[in-house]
Amino acid sequence: MTRSTRRVMEPSASPGPGTPTAVRLGGVSKTFRGREDVRALDPVDLTVPAGEFVAIVGPSGCGKSTLLRIVAGLVDADPGGRVEVQGRPVDGTPPGLGVVFQTHNLLPWRTVEANVGLGARLAGVPKAEVARRVPPMLEMLGLSGFAGKHPHELSGGMRQRAALGQALVCRPDILLLDEPFGALDALTRDRLNVELLRIWQELRQTVLLVTHSIAEAVFLADRIIVMSQRPGTVVEDLRVDIARPRDPATTRALPEFTETAQRLSRLMGVT
Ligand SMILES: Nc1ncnc2c1ncn2[C@@H]1O[C@H](COP(=O)(O)OP(=O)(O)OP(=O)(O)O)[C@@H](O)[C@H]1O
């Protein structure tokens, strides 16, 4: 069987019925209290099986980051909602969770190597084990030649790759990505999407990715959650029926890709 035939026959990564649940949100809402209250989220229900790649899209300010931060235990949801990660109610940052934001959290005075190992060290992974994990991670992310450099000596794309490495070295079961490549130029972003997909295909963590890019969502995800204007809630839960493995040239040329992207554009009021 040729590689291209296999591509057509390989199903999209829909989890089977016995798959454990990675993230479960039930009636999760959020109002930021202040001089003027901001209602960020209307009740959201969302169940994500382990190993699924989910993209979250929606208008600016609709509460996507807030939703991700609630899952990460960085923001408290309003009372009454239920937030569970791997079957446990969220109270503080759950174990097994990796987070990458649009702006990286690399420490400027530490080398790339030290930064990539930092999250794992803070999570209590022994020094020797971190030292074992970091080099292959740098290799995987194409940063081997930059291990001894500092963040300011890297390009924007390299810094985001290092931030991704920092999360991945902790071997998270669930990866929360909040516009991780949003500040990068289109070409670098495309390249990092391909890398992200390659890594995900190897490690198969659960991924929740917030993105503004319809093309990025369709290319990467098994499923796309579309949110309404603020206060955000789920208005559409779309399955992306495009076979894996995916590569940019072939996948974007598929009629299913165009159809899904057009449907999303309509839902988001872009066209
Ligand atoms: N800590 C906070 N205090 C008060 N209001 C907040 C806070 N964080 C977010 N908000 C408000 O909640 C709403 C949702 O913000 P959020 O960042 O979640 O949206 P978003 O969909 O991620 O936006 P974008 O796509 O522009 O990044 C916005 O109106 C924002 O101003």
UniProtKB/TrEMBL annotation:
Q: Which GO terms describe its molecular function?
A: ATP binding; ATP hydrolysis activity
* Keywords assigned by UniProt, alphabetized: ATP-binding, Nucleotide-binding, Transport
Tell me yes or no: is Transport among this UniProt entry's keywords. Answer: yes
- Which SUPFAM superfamilies does UniProt cross-reference here? P-loop containing nucleoside triphosphate hydrolases
Region annotated Disordered, chain positions: 1-25
Checking InterPro entries in the record gives: AAA+_ATPase, ABC_transporter-like_ATP-bd, ABC_transporter-like_CS, ABC_transporter_ATP-bind, P-loop_NTPase
* Gene3D superfamilies recorded: P-loop containing nucleotide triphosphate hydrolases
Domain ABC transporter, residue spans: 23-254
Q: Which Pfam families match?
A: ABC_tran (PF00005)
The record's section on CDD domains has:
ABC_NrtD_SsuB_transporters
Please report the name of this protein according to its UniProt entry.
Answer: ABC transporter ATP-binding protein
What is the species of this protein?
Answer: Actinomadura soli
